[in-house]
Amino acid sequence: MNSQEKRELGIYAAQIRLGIIESTYNAKAGHPGGSLSAADVIAYLYGRQMKYDVKNPKDPNRDRFVLSKGHAAPALYSALAYKGFFPVEDLKTLRHIDSYLQGHPNMNTVPGIDMSTGSLGQGISAACGMAKGAKMLGQKDMKVYTLLGDGEIEEGQVWEAMMFAAQYDLDNLCVIIDVNGLQIDGACEDVMSAEPIDEKVRAFGFDCVVINGNDFDDLETTTVKKYRRLLSSDALFFVDHHDFLRSSLTGEIFATNREQVEAMIEYLWKIRRRMRDPVKR
Q1: pLDDT at 273
Q2: Suppose 104 and one of 24, 70, 114, 139 were both cysteines; which one would form an S-S bond, judging by CB atoms 3.0 to 4.6 Å apart?
Q3: Distance between CA atoms of 44 and 210, rounded to whole angstroms?
Q4: What are the E-state strand segments in the chain?
Q5: How far apart are CA 236 and CA 13, in angstroms?
């Protein structure tokens, strides 16, 4: 990946974050923390890794993405909107009555969504089914990616799905765990720690790699064999800059003060401009 390609990924990730902030602000509800911590991973998948066709979202040969932590829908919606699946302006209708962009992904109403999710633990099971189905149908080039949260993996169904994946050698499946250390009731270590996650994943038959999921170089250079675990860093891209974003990571908190939102958006636009023209600071 050259510097220009990395810069474009950074711009895309900033756009995703812009969409998250605008959509959750206009909804006065949502899950900004878990969405922000996954922004770089989702940007990399849709910006460089996955095979899909915006003009033909149901292309049977496309790669599949299942957002198992479905509450991070604002991140996925933003990624899809900025790739052209639907108008960016529609992000402001998140969770509104009669909007097709509801609080959790709906494959029946949103272009580009491969699986309806929201009930934690079920997304990875669906992803396993997709991967198994692709093998049965001889779709050798189709890959399935699923993104979970470290709070989500407290669900027993997650580990049942992992046993299934290992049993049937689903080497076309990439399982990603966004380890941001937080869940709705507080810190994961205080509620129900799943650590050591990497050792447990390996014990369930996975090839496991721990990387910084906010670093595109790490994402690019990591060798994916069967499965990948990405270690996120609590959306550090933002934490040191806005108190709201620091507090938002701890629960269902969203900006009600437009001045806060404008400050965050201005910060992101500065980053985007700097990435587009690195000479002009």
Answers
A1: 65
A2: 70
A3: 16
A4: 64-67, 144-149, 173-178, 182-183, 186-187, 210-212, 229-231
A5: 13
End-to-end CA distance of the chain, in Å? 23
What pLDDT does 257 receive? 62
Q: Which of 110-114, 150-154, 263-267 has the highest mean pLDDT?
A: 110-114
Residues 152-156 have a mean pLDDT of 94
Per-residue b or e along 219-249, where b marks 16 or more CB atoms closer than 10 Å to that residue's CB: beebeeebbbbbbbbbbebbeeebebbeebb
What pLDDT does 274 receive?
62
Phi, psi of 187 (to 5 degrees): -70, 140
Are residues 128 and 50 in contact, defined by beta-carbon separation less than 8 angstroms?
no
Asked if residue 17 lies in contact with residue 238, where contact means CB atoms within 8 angstroms, the answer is yes
Look-up of token digits 């080039």: 141
Give the Å distances, CA to CA, from 49 to 168, 176, 179, 210, 274. Answer: 24, 13, 20, 18, 24
Distance CA(15)–CA(107), nearest Å, equals 23
Greater model confidence, 162 or 252: 162
Question: In the block, which residue shows the tokens 């399935």?
Answer: 144
Distance (Å, whole) CA 63 – CA 169:
18
Number of Cα atoms under 13 Å in the Cβ half of residue 17: 29
Distance, in Å, from the CA atom of 4 to the CA atom of 126, rounded to the nearest integer, reads 36
Average pLDDT over residues 210-217: 81
